[in-house]
Structures are given as C-alpha cells and as structure tokens.
Amino acid sequence: MTSALAPTPAIQRRGLLYRMSRSKSGMAGFVIVLLIIGMTIVAPLVMNHTIAPDPAHAWEGPSGGHLLGTDNSGRDVLKQVLLGGGTVIFVGLGAAAVTTVIAVALGSLAAYLRGWVDSALLQLTDIFMTIPQIVLLAVLGSFFQLTSPILLALLLGSFSWPVLMRSIRAQVLTLKEREFVEAARSLDLGTLRVVFVEIVPNMAGYILINFIIAVTNAIYALVGLYVLGLAPLSGANWGIMIHQAWTYGAIYIASGTPYILAPVFAIALVQLGLVMLTRSLEEVFNPRLAEG
Amino acid sequence: MATVVNQERSGTGSSTDRPVLQVEDLRITYRTGRSGRAVEAVRGVSFDLYPRQALALVGESGCGKSTLALGLLRLLPRLGGISGGSIRYQPQGGGDPVDVRALEGRRLRAWRWSEVAMVFQGAMNAFNPVLRIEDQFADTIRAHAEGNGRAARPSMREVRERAAENLRAVRLEPARVLGSYPHELSGGMRQRVLIALSLVLEPQVLLMDEPTTALDLLTQRSIVDMLRELREERGFALIFISHDLALASELSDRVATMYAGRIIETGATPEVFAHPRHPYTSGLMRAVPRVRGGGPGPVSIPGSPPDLAHPPAGCAFAARCPHVRDACHETDPPLETVAVSNGPELTAHRAACLRWRELAEEAAAADDAEQAADAGQTDDAEQAELPQQKGATE
Amino acid sequence: MTTGTASADGTPLLQLDAVEQVFRTKKGDVPAVRGVDLHVNEGEVLCLVGESGCGKTTTARIAAGLAPPTGGRVLYRGRALSEMGSEEKVQYRRGVQFVHQDPYASLNPIRTVFATLAAPLRKHGLATSRKDAWEQACRLLEQVDLRPPENFLSKYPHQLSGGQRQRVAVARALTLKPSLIVADEATSMLDVSIRVGLLKMLSKLRTELGTGFVFITHDLAIARYFGTGGRIAVMYLGRVVEHGLTEEVIENPQHPYTRALLDAVPTMDDDEVGAVAGEARKLRGVDIPSLLALPSGCTFHPRCPLFREGLCDTADPPLEPLAVAGGADRDVSCHVVREAVAEAGRAS
Ligand SMILES: Nc1ncnc2c1ncn2[C@@H]1O[C@H](COP(=O)(O)OP(=O)(O)OP(=O)(O)O)[C@@H](O)[C@H]1O
Ligand SMILES: Nc1ncnc2c1ncn2[C@@H]1O[C@H](COP(=O)(O)OP(=O)(O)O)[C@@H](O)[C@H]1O
Ligand code: SF4
Ligand code: SF4
Ligand SMILES: [Mg+2]
Ligand SMILES: [Mg+2]
C-alpha cells in the first residue's frame, strides 16, 4: 500500500540540470550539442560568408594554411565545415518542431476524443505512412525550388509525424484514465484545456526526448536529399559538401579524403551528441531509473 | 530436522523460555539518494520476543515498522544499513545464540526463511506471474535444501506433499491451488498462499508486514482467525506489523507502539489498550471510530511526525502532544516501566513519556468521575441496548 | 431523523433507477452492477458499504456521470441524464462532484494547488480576475481546514502529505458549489491519525453548506461515524442486499451478509479483545464467487450461514421492505430472514 502512495511527480522541476549532470555521457552529449549550435551561430558572424574559389590550389592536402585541405575549386574545407552547419541544424530543428507539434496535437486529440475523430486521424496516418517520403520529396523538389530552409523544414516535418503521433496517442490513452484527468473532466474544464493543460504537460519529458529523436531523423533525411541531389545545390552546407565531394570524385584523390570525411564527421558528431543527450534525459524523466 | 525442532518446541512454551529473538538498541540508517544525507529510520529499538508470543507493532506510516522488520532479517535495501545495536537469535533446539549482525553469505541465507521468515508488505502482488504455485513452493524448498548443503534434492513429489500440508493449514484446497498461476487466485487466496509459503520451512519466528491491509473485512477476519489457530498448532512466534490497532489487538498478546523510529510504549495487549500510558498510543486509540455503542466520537492527532533527518532534541512527539510541557522539548524520555503487576518481565508495561505518572493519575480521576456519572444513567443505557440484543438473538 | 429533505414535490436530488453495468471483457461479460435502485435527497448522506469488488465504485461512477450505465436510468432533480439538453447537463455536472480514493493520483502532479483550484473558477466565470480567483481559492482552502491558505496555494502535490492532498481534492470538488459529493473511499488510504480530521471536515461541510453525500467505504465504523442521520446500503455482488437508516442497520442488521460484515469488525474494547463473536461470523466460505459465474438463486448462498437448501439456491430473493421491530423503513433481500420476521409477527 505504501509503495503505491510513494509520490512520483512526473517531472522534478528543480534540479533538472543537476540530475542530467549525473549521467556523464548525457552531459558530454549536451556539451557537444551546445558547442555545435554555438559554432553554427558564431561562425557566420565572424567569418566571411563567401569563400572565394582559388583553382590554383585545388585538391590540396591539409597544411598550415588549410587545416583540412581544399576542395576541387581550391576553397578551404575547414571554413566550409564551420559555415555549413547552419542550414542542416536549422532545418533539423524546424522539421522536428513541425513534426512534434502536429503529432502531439493530433495524437492527443485522437486519443482523448476517440470516436470518429480518432478513426479519421488513424486513417490519415495510414495514408501518410504508405507514401514513400523520399520519392514524394523528389517529386516535390522538381516542382518547387526548395532553396528556402523554412520550406524544407515544413516539408520534412509534415511528412514524418505519423509514427510519433501514434505513440503520443498511446500515451494519452493511458494518461486520460488517470484520476486527475477524470476530475478535470467532471469540472467541465473544456476539451482543449483538459488535453493541452492537464494532460500534455505530463508528457513533457517524453515529448522532449521524441523531439530530439525527430531532430536526428530530420537531419538524416535532409542530408539524404542533398547527397542524392534531390534538393537544389545552391549555397554550402554539410549535405551539399558530401554531394560535391562525391561527384567530383574526392574518394579517388588521396588529398581529397578530408573533404569528404569532414562533413560526414560533423554530422555524425551532432547525431552522437543528440543521442547521448536523449539517454540522460530518459534518465531524468524516468523516475524509476532516476531513483537509484 | 524440522520435525525434531517442532516436537521440542511444542513440549515447552511457558513464559520461562529464553527469548527467541533479542533486539538491543537497534539503529538503522538510510542514505538518501540526492544529497547522501543520512536518515535514521530506526533509532534505538530494543525488545525480546519469546517463543509462541505474538507481538504487534503498530504506528503511523513512515514510523519505521517495515524498516525494522527488514533490518531484523538483514534484508535492507542497498542504501540502508544497520548502524548500531545487536540482534541475537536463540535456536530453540538448543545451541549457542546466533549474532544475526555477524551472519554472512550462505549462513545468512540458511538462517533466513528456515529460522525466521517474513511476509512482505504488498507481496501478494509481487508473485512471479509465470510460475505456478507449486513451482513457487519448489523454489523455496529446494533453494533452502541447497543452502543447507543437503545431499538429496527434494523431488517434486516431496515438494507437493509439503506444500499441500501447508496449504491445507491455511484452508486452501491444494488440488485447486497448486496448479494455478498467481493471477488466477483472488487477493485473499494469494495472501494465504504467501503465508503457507513462509511456513513451509517451519520457521520459529514469522514476521508479517501489513498482511491484511489490502484485503477486505471478511478476508482479513478469516486470515486473522487462521493465524491464531496456526500459531497455537505450530508454536511459532509472530511479529505482526499493522496500522490497524483494533486488528492488532485481536491477534497479539503483546503490543509495541512505534513513533519516529522508536518503540514508545509496549506491554501486554489488554493492559496497553485498557490503560495506555503514552499520549501517542491513547491518541491513536481515540482516532479510531467505533462501530457499536455511543461513547465519545473519534479525535484526530494534529500535525505530522518529525522529519527523521533532523529529529527534535526532546520527546519526538512533543510537537503534537496535548500534554506537552517545556521539559518535554529538552529531555528525551526513556522507556520506563509503568506497571509490572501483571506478571513476569516479558509482559511489563513500559512507556516513554516524562509525564506518564501525572497523566495516569488524571486518567484514573476522570474514570472515577465517569463511573459516578454512569451510575446515574444505567436505566437509559439499558434501554438503548435493547434493540441491539433483539437483533443478535434473531 | 434524516437530515436530508426531498424538494417540495418529493423529488430526490439524485436517483438511480435499476442501473446496470456490464463490462465486456475477453473472458466474458462481467455484470458489475446488477439492477440498483438508490436515491439521495438534498443534504443527505447515503453510505455504500460492501466487500471489495462488489460494485461500489462502479455504482458511484454511474451516479457521478463518469460512466454511462449499460442499463437503467440516472435522474438528477427528477430529470433523466439521457434526456438532458446541454444546458441541463452543465447544471448536473456542476451539481455532482466526485472525490477519488487515491489523493496521490487525483491531483495533477505538475500543477500547483492554486492552478488546480483556479481553473474551474475561471472556466465557469465564478472568478473574473486572477486576484479574485486567489481570494476564492483561499476561502476554499479555509473551508477544508488548510490554514493559512497562502502557504498552500503555491505548493505542488508532491510537497503535501496524503491528508493535505485529500483536502485539496475536496476543495477542488467544492469550487463549483455542488449539491452532491460522491466520495469513493476518500479516507481509506490515509493514516488513522489523519482520517478522523478529514471526516470531521467533511461533516462540517455537510452541516454548514448543506452538501449531500454518497459516501463509499468498506469500514463500517467510518460509515457509522460519518453517516449518522443518513441511510446506508449494503452491496453484495452488484446488488443492494440491505438498506435502511445507518444507525438502525448497524445496531440491528437483518441480512446474514450485513451481520457477517459487522461481526468481522475488529474491536479493541477490553472485554472483547481476542473474543470470537457469534455464529453468524462463521461464513461457510470466505471466497467471493466470480462475477463470471454467479451462484444460482441468492448469490450469497454458497457462503451464507442461514442457507436453506431448495429455497435459497433456486429463487432470487427480491429487495423488499421488511417490518423490523422498533425500526423505521428497512429493505432486505433474504428469504429466511423474511420468513422468520413474518413468523415472529404472527407469534406476537
Ligand atoms: N529506501 C529508503 N530510502 C530512504 N528512506 C527510506 C527508505 N525506505 C524507508 N525510508 C524512510 O524510513 C522511514 C520508515 O519507513 P517504513 O517503510 O519502515 O515505514 P512504515 O512504518 O512501514 O510505514 P507504512 O505503514 O507506510 O508501511 C520513513 O521515514 C521512510 O521515508
Ligand atoms: N473497467 C472494468 N473492466 C472490467 N471489469 C471491471 C472494470 N471496473 C470494475 N470491474 C469489475 O467490476 C467489479 C466491481 O468493481 P468496483 O466497482 O471497482 O468494486 P469496489 O469499488 O466495490 O471495490 C469488480 O469485479 C471489478 O473487477
Ligand atoms: S514526554 Fe511530554 S511531549 Fe512527550 S509524550 Fe510525554 S507529555 Fe507528551
Ligand atoms: S436468501 Fe438464503 S442464502 Fe440468501 S442470504 Fe437469505 S438465507 Fe442466506
Ligand atoms: Mg511499511
Ligand atoms: Mg473501489
């Protein structure tokens, strides 16, 4: 009886950072992610945006002047890496935000209202899940000029929500049976309030973790688009770098190795940081793991 | 082996026995996760448990009842530990007393369950769901046989026989129960299986932590009746933990009230309930509404127990006590004998309150006054009782 | 005797009319409530007692409109819920509030006491500003004896003790000034030392605000204490088996099941310590039959000490008025007791 009485606040508001810091890998992930985001913000402010081509020094290996060598047209690889994270991360965050908002809104309403709303929304997820995303994006890419990062984020985000929507729906189905929800319902607080003020904040941890997972997925999808050349190759970012390095045959040129590996490594580092971060967040939000 | 012990035991059983369990100044400390600060959940508990005795441990939730029981069995969680005092166990077949704190590894496991067994709080919901009841018995019996280094592993037939005997003792049909999975049994049946399971190794001491709290009245009643019979039959000593005073009073011959990690009153059950000497015990008694008869309505105890991370200097109950005086905040009252008239030391009535003598006198005076008042009202009282008697004789 | 009063035309505040609840499960249909008629008048207490699983909670949830019954009707001030328009429904929702058993589950863990109390006040236009809501929340907390209220308003549930949480839950139920509170085992998860305090507070609300109660408990002593002056209904396997004035039923139980329940109550009066009370306690079986395979005739017959073969296992005894000597209205469903009372009546 007592154990059932043990208070298990869904989120311990105080000491979130403290508890996160107890997981070493989580803290490391947090630092990595912070550093990379900081870099993508700071780099464009302190560096010249356009890196002038210098064909005389094409395909140079690492040297004092060019720490990671140069590309096919003699541009500095390190500078490109430092400047090329912005779009990737912005689109990743934006797409994840779009996905999460749609998934939470639709998933919780479907679960709370049930009935025809639920069946209709489930039908919709079925439809979305059967469409091959990458093909659709390719088709859309040929119709629209996907140069705007905002448009990219919207597009990526509005196709990846169904999976998360279903798991949010499952969560809400159990949460809505909780007694405090029933109490809110019998006080006639109104559907929107019960769903978005009483229920959804109780899943904050779960949502945050899934948001981060969505960021990693969006980054992969975006990079995939660039690598396959399905998105316009204007500007410079990690995805475009990989595509260029590949098409100009960097792997066949010994001194071109850094050119292709540097963006791959940058992307891998971001993803690693994010995954490590979710680990420690899981620990923070899961009371049973956090207790020991 | 077990049967020999049993015979020896049933031959004796007078109050001149040596205590089977002697606990002295036991202290148990938990380190709490976040800051690593220490919380002393049991703060110097002493008592002797005699063979065949039933001791009820009562008190509010959080007062340290379960912690004490887990400590006695050396089953504390990782962050808890015994920080002082001693536990001695006297095997009844004769032999030297065992220092329980010094037991380790294999010897500790062999001692647990076969000598002292425990039914945990809420354990009836903690059965392994994929094991049949007979497998649960087999696990217990075999694990112990190995722990004892016995050569022959008991066969399944032997296991079933022993299980059936104990299931019948708790009034369950072995044929139906042995092959069932836990979820196929009701809460009351599971609780009885658990008792049978704890008795299968014929322990001399049985600890039960809130064994009936989650059950309804009728099931609770049948388990209490059954325990009383079993104890007479097999002669084990019982420590019964509960926050239900009335229930404890029916099952036990001795009671100990715990407050903030200490025993603050103990004695023979009828004596303590008739003349509680600690304000907390009388407070607990007054807090329970009565189902029959008039009498004064129940009264709650205001406030809540002290934070054990910072126990107060004087009497731990001072903040809630209606009889508190300045001295109570300074002196920590020791457990004093308040009445010995009722027999040997093992039933001595002891309480830890600085003012027990004054309060006892006040209570006696109030009783007299009440009796005088009652004498004048006998007629009314008799009339009020009439319908009840009619109902009972129908 | 009864503190409650029916409204001028005799319509009860809330009435259950032959309600049934059948849960469809994989193992089969579970008839948790099998035709229950009950009513509560304004300001009255109706206690519902019985073993666990007998359908108390299910009945209460039907009464509070949290689950529609699969059969029968619920009437609020004489109007059936199923026929109500949305305006009436709002009146009913505000008029009947539910207090859950577990104070640890019934408060939203991430909302402060103030947020919990202010939401219904603001939503229903009872408070027009934050300051107004704050003042009203203070008054509500004072009503449930949480003083000084300012200390509690900004706290989260995990910072409160069990008793304090349950008081907050009651305060929340009071926000809409209900005429009926349905309390499901509202004190059973609390320690003895704080239980009485909560019961007293609820009694005070009854007398001061005239709130009616459907009070569910398995503790007969608590039913007696809180239900004084009201009525009690004893449930067994989804039916009411005895119904009458609380004191009379407890002092003079008629149905063998009610008697067994009362005999099972442990007491600590010195003369009764360790005593084994009368024969009625000796039930023939302790196990509650499964709702999936109900016994024939009277569902209590496999356990009943008064069981008479050929009668009890064939015919289902109806719940009908019984003339109990010296008592007021009493409904009992038992063949044998009815016969005995009839005989006693003839003899005298
Ligand atoms: N694992 C633990 N870590 C830290 N403190 C603990 C732990 N277990 C128990 N405590 C504390 O020790 C004290 C005694 O707890 P215990 O569980 O023994 O109480 P109890 O009397 O059995 O209560 P209940 O009647 O609720 O079961 C309480 O203050 C409790 O908070
Ligand atoms: N949602 C449900 N689905 C299936 N069975 C249920 C459900 N809720 C309750 N029951 C069953 O109905 C019976 C009555 O339950 P309940 O009203 O909760 O009893 P009480 O409150 O008296 O303990 C029990 O047998 C219970 O298992
Ligand atoms: S010592 Fe003082 S405070 Fe403690 S119980 Fe006795 S009278 Fe009360
Ligand atoms: S009808 Fe028969 S079985 Fe049922 S309660 Fe009465 S005597 Fe018992
Ligand atoms: Mg305990
Ligand atoms: Mg219930």
UniProtKB/TrEMBL annotation, chain B:
It is found in: Cell membrane. Residues 362-394 are annotated as: Disordered. It is a peripheral membrane protein. Keywords: ATP-binding, Cell membrane, Membrane, Nucleotide-binding, Transport. GO terms for cellular component: plasma membrane. Residues 364-383 have a biased composition (Acidic residues). SUPFAM superfamilies: P-loop containing nucleoside triphosphate hydrolases. CDD domains: ABC_NikE_OppD_transporters. GO terms for molecular function: ATP binding; ATP hydrolysis activity. It holds the Pfam family oligo_HPY. Residues 21-285 form the ABC transporter domain. One of its GO terms (biological process) is peptide transport. Belongs to the ABC transporter superfamily. This is Peptide ABC transporter ATP-binding protein.
UniProtKB/TrEMBL annotation, chain C:
Residues 14-262 form the ABC transporter domain. GO terms for molecular function: ATP binding; ATP hydrolysis activity. It holds the Pfam family oligo_HPY. Keywords: ATP-binding, Nucleotide-binding, Transport. Coiled coil: none annotated. GO terms for biological process: peptide transport; transmembrane transport. Gene3D superfamilies: P-loop containing nucleotide triphosphate hydrolases (3.40.50.300). InterPro entries: AAA+_ATPase, ABC_transp_ATP-bind, ABC_transporter-like_ATP-bd, ABC_transporter-like_CS, Oligopep_ABC_C, P-loop_NTPase. It comes from the Bacteria. Belongs to the ABC transporter superfamily. NCBIfam families: oligo_HPY. This is Peptide ABC transporter ATP-binding protein. It comes from Mangrovactinospora gilvigrisea.
